[in-house]
Every structure is written in C-alpha cells, then in structure tokens.
Amino acid sequence: MEKEDNMLTDIALKAYKDYTKWELSYARYKVGSSYIDIPIDRVEMIGDKALKVYLVINNHRHSTITVSEIQLINTDNEVFCQFEENIVINANEEGYLYVVKFKFKEGSDA
Hints:
By secondary structure, the chain is mainly beta. It has one helix at 10-23, and strands at residues 24-31, 34-38, 42-46, 50-58, 65-74, 79-89, 95-103. The protein has a four-stranded antiparallel β-sheet. The protein has a three-stranded antiparallel β-sheet with strand order 3-4-7, with helices on one face. It is elongated and about 50 Å long. The relative contact order is 0.24. The model has no long low-confidence stretch (mean pLDDT 86).
C-alpha cells in the first residue's frame, strides 16, 4: 500500500536545492556542430525552494552565431539537463546572459 499524503518538509526541499547546486560543474553551448565549454558564472539561492544558475555566453568569433543548445554538466561530466534554444548573438554583441531557474516543490500527479 502506498501512502500518498506525505509532504516533503522545507528542510527536504532545501536539501534538494543544495544538492543541485553542488552537483553542477560547468556548462556548454552548441554552435553549429561544436560544443563550447563555459564556467558557471554564479549560482544564487532564492529562498529555500529555488535556485538560479547564471551563464555568460561570449561571442569570441566576432561574427553572428546561433546557439542551438545549452547543457549543464554535473561533477561526473554527464549532462545534468539540457535546453534546445535558438539564440542569435550578433557580431557586435559581446555576449548573452542565460539564466536557468530551478523550483523545488512538493507535487502530486493525482
């Protein structure tokens, strides 16, 4: 018999948030068929139930580029999460600030 009315405490939700923060190692983005590794610029804790990860995508090519995918990589060098994108960075733009927000909450599929 499954018990479905268990609710995670705020402490448990904070633990998931902390785990996610420490599990992330770096990021990479895809231009054409190439992936470019970049560091995570910063991570902000938003209360006990959210986390923001900031990435700065610099345009070192000095030509217009299109970023088609962004990945966050964990400490085992595995893809933690990925996002399909269509971000155009023009030649005269230095870069692009990309923010990933994780929200941690109790939920039910019922």
